[in-house]
């Protein structure tokens, strides 16, 4: 029996958070959420997650800075969590920008939920 995988969604849009939650719960993931990068960082340091979905444009701390801070954590298990960026502004970033911040993959808004499930499944297996 495999244990349920835990997904942390860092997203300030309640609509995207709720839709993503419902889609991934249907795939048997346990979902947690945060509204900004600081909350994400607080949750990551106190709890284990299997993958992080991270909005790039969040208040308090944006997704790029949050990813960089996660990658610099002393705990290597936490520092190496797979991170998927979610962005409506992909044209503002290159793949190199995402890679430099430590982001493993990215999804564009509006979210393609089939792609979301595919990416999360790939990064958690």
Automatic annotation (TrEMBL):
SMART domains registered for this protein in UniProt: REC (SM00448)
Keywords: Phosphoprotein, Two-component regulatory system
CDD domains found in the cross-reference section: REC_hyHK_CKI1_RcsC-like
Record keyword Lyase present: no
InterPro entries, A to Z: CheY-like_superfamily (IPR011006), Sig_transdc_resp-reg_receiver (IPR001789)
Residues that bear 4-aspartylphosphate: 55
Keyword Phosphoprotein: yes
Pfam family, one: Response_reg
Domain Response regulatory: start-end pairs: 6-124
Stored PROSITE patterns: RESPONSE_REGULATORY
Gene3D superfamilies referenced in this protein's UniProt entry, alphabetically: 3.40.50.2300
GO biological process: phosphorelay signal transduction system
Protein name per UniProt: Response regulator receiver domain-containing protein
Highest classification ranks of the organism: Bacteria, Pseudomonadati, Bacteroidota, Cytophagia, Cytophagales
């Amino acid at each position: 029996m495999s244990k349920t995988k835990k997904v942390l969604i860092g997203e300030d849009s309640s609509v995207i958070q709720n839709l993503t939650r419902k889609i991934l719960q249907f795939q048997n993931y346990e979902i947690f959420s945060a509204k900004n990068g600081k909350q994400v960082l607080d949750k990551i340091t106190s709890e284990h997650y299997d993958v992080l979905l991270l909005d790039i444009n969040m208040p308090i701390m944006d997704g790029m800075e949050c990813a960089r801070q996660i990658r610099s954590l002393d705990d290597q298990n936490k520092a190496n969590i797979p991170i998927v960026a979610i962005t409506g502004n992909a044209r503002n970033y290159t793949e190199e920008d995402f890679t430099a911040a430590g982001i493993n993959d990215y999804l564009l808004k509006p979210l393609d939920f089939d792609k979301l499930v595919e990416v999360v499944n790939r990064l958690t297996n």
